Amino acid sequence: MVIDFSAFYELPRLIDRLAAEGESSFAASRGQAVFPPLNIGEDESAVYVRALIPGGDLSALDLTLTDKTLVLRGELPPVRGRYYRQERRTGPFQRVVLLNVPIDRDRVHAAMRDGVLEVVLPKAQQEPLRTIHITTR
Description:
Elements: H1 6-20, H2 24-29, E1 38-42, E2 46-52, E3 61-65, E4 69-76, E5 91-98, E6 109-113, E7 116-122
Antiparallel strand pairs: 1-2, 2-7, 3-4, 4-5, 6-7
């Protein structure tokens, strides 16, 4: 009898990939929409993250910036009442945005207007490459 354990060796790699991509790919594979939906863009000067959080309260939102990620956490309060259908999500949520450029932490700012949270992450000024001349002795 031969037992193929190759799937077990792939499991750590699969877990690492899912963690790196955040919960978006895992939730999408289960047929669930990720929340909040994000628009992520950039230009020469900054990276822009816009999150649609209808009914979100600023006191229930938390933004954390690390060297390579922006983490958006929050909670939408449950809506009381009798519903025939309820499609708007409530409860806690978290999104992780991987950043591929250095960010100037001192100039980051966020604003919320009409249920849209906009986070502006200015890119850090990169120092030009410095050439080092080698001399012979």
